[in-house]
């Protein structure tokens, strides 16, 4: 796992954001949460997480998006942090699951058929419409295709091998226009775990969601 500070000004509080599969800092580096440091986590070929830089913070808010919800669940289960709020966006702790995540056949099909063309189509499905997709293309992650294939395969192998762990989340945000992880599966996952759900009209990747839960994370309770 890669951990990158996007803001490191030694504030007493930290926004800790776990991005989705295939991500890097490119789509998320313009957000500036007020009076807060901001760390991005991505690349889940491993789940190694260095908590040592986080001991200086008295207040941490964790936001997970997409596959980052699963990664954050694993990290939080084994890492003592001073976390005040945990928000999951368009993802669940069950990333490959017939009723609570991405159906296994669809996940495997994405992995088996991953090419530049299929990735382009995947990114298009993440966005609400052609205008949003055109804007996203100006800030798509800059990672090699083979690396993304390795990451997807590692997620599948690790999810199958690891036992379930306690999923401690305060809110599950579900975009009803999500075409990556079925919204009904997301709702079912959070209901199964007893986590409150906030449903929005958003797509899987939606600027409005990130403005609210990254830019304004300290003021939108």
Q: Mind explaining what this structure looks like?
A:
- The protein is of the alpha/beta class and 221 residues long.
- The chain has a single domain (2-215), classed as Rossmann fold (3-Layer(aba) Sandwich).
- It has helices at residues 67-78, 104-112, 116-126, 130-136, 145-161, 183-193, 207-215; strands at 2-7, 13-18, 37-42, 59-65, 83-89, 171-175, 197-200.
- It has a 7-stranded mixed sheet, sandwiched between helices.
- The protein is globular.
Shape label: globular
Adjacency order of strands in the biggest sheet: 1-3-2-4-5-6-7
Gap between N and C termini? 29 Å
Number of helical segments with 4 or more residues: 7
* Quaternary form: single chain
The amount of beta strand, in percent, is: 15-25%
CATH superfamily: Alpha/Beta hydrolase fold, catalytic domain
User: Which CATH architecture is right?
Assistant: 3-Layer(aba) Sandwich
Q: Determine the mean pLDDT.
A: 95
Number of strands: 7
Low-confidence stretches: none
Instruction: Output the CATH class name.
Output: Alpha Beta
Radius of gyration: 16 Å
* Helical residues, percent: 25-40%
Structural class by sheet pairing and helices: alpha/beta
């Amino acid at each position: 796992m890669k951990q990158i500070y996007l803001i490191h000004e030694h504030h007493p509080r930290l926004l800790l954001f776990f991005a989705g599969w295939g991500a890097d800092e490119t789509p998320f580096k313009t957000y500036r949460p007020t009076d807060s440091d901001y760390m991005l986590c991505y690349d889940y070929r491993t789940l190694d997480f260095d908590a040592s830089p986080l001991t200086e913070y008295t207040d941490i808010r964790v936001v997970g998006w997409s596959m980052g919800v699963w990664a954050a669940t694993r990290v939080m289960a084994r890492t003592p942090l001073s976390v005040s709020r945990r928000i999951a966006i368009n993802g669940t702790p069950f990333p490959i699951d017939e009723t609570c995540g991405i159906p296994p056949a669809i996940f495997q099909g994405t992995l088996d058929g991953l090419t530049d063309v299929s990735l382009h189509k995947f990114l298009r499905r993440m966005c609400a419409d052609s205008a949003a997709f055109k804007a996203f293309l100006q800030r798509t992650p800059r990672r090699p295709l083979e690396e993304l294939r390795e990451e997807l395969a590692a997620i599948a192998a690790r999810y199958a091998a690891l036992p379930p762990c306690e999923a401690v989340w305060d809110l599950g945000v579900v975009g009803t226009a999500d075409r990556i992880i079925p919204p009904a599966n997301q709702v079912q996952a959070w209901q199964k775990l007893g986590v409150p759900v906030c449903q929005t009209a958003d797509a899987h990747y939606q600027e409005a969601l990130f403005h609210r839960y990254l830019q304004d994370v300290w003021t939108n309770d």
